[in-house]
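Quick question, first post here. What does this chain look like in 3D?
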Amino acid sequence: MSPMAGGISLPVRELSWLAAALVFCGVVLWLDVATSADFNECFLLPIAVAAAYPIRRDWATWLIVAVATATVVLGAVLEPEGESLNAMLTNRGVTVVVILVIGLLMSRVTSSERQLFRIATTDPLTGILNRRHFLEQLGRERLRAMRYGTAVSLLILDIDHFKRINDTYGHPVGDEAIKALAGTAGKCLRPTDLIARFGGEEFVVMLPHTDEPGAVMAAERIREAVGKIVVPAGSQEVRFTVSIGATTHARGVTVDQLLECVDKALYAAKNGGRNQVCVGRLNGSGEGAATLAPA
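> Answer (accepted):
Ran it through. Tokens below.
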């Protein structure tokens, strides 16, 4: 990432697009002054705004629009005499309008793309990642772990006796319990960790650069925090616990094997009395059994 003013940062590729757009505006200004050709600013400057599309940030779009507009005005000041005032104002006024319109359209397009991406990758109830996008990220992190020899761990969480909550207090209260768990678990994680709703009352967490002891510590931290959640239900309060399965990626293990192992660990935690963490261990062939995590 490359630092920008005001704490804003851009990847190198996007910073390159921004720099190219600004340099392009400078080249157009030079052509405008050197050739006194009206088509320079009219046809070339709007192209600079198109460079904002790969950046997909509104501030970058409007920065380029502002620089392009300033280029039009500066060109009018620096251009040698030879064009009537009315013709100059008309030509450059139309150019500014075109630049602003393209900037507005570009901003709308990128805003729609961000919204569509958010809809496609997040769970509508909790606002965290959905299953499909989480699995894509898990697959990438698994490949990264295999390439660099780093550890990556996986947790799976399930609310204990969730059906009882729905049957006793109603589905709206159940939904609030799900949202509360997602929010609480998210606060227990690092910025690099990912949490997703896997389905119903079940959640998954990916912990990059985390070995088995670290995964157990994170799981216990989540379990203890969830135990303190209080969900209002009319005049009553609903409390619940969570069972957690944990496993750490082993070389040669596929994503499906990893998910199967952590799922077995979750069921072991359920069968062992709930409200606890259970670890599933895999060897390189994908074989292994779930065992209770050490205290």
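Residues 2-121 form one domain.
The radius of gyration is 28 Å.
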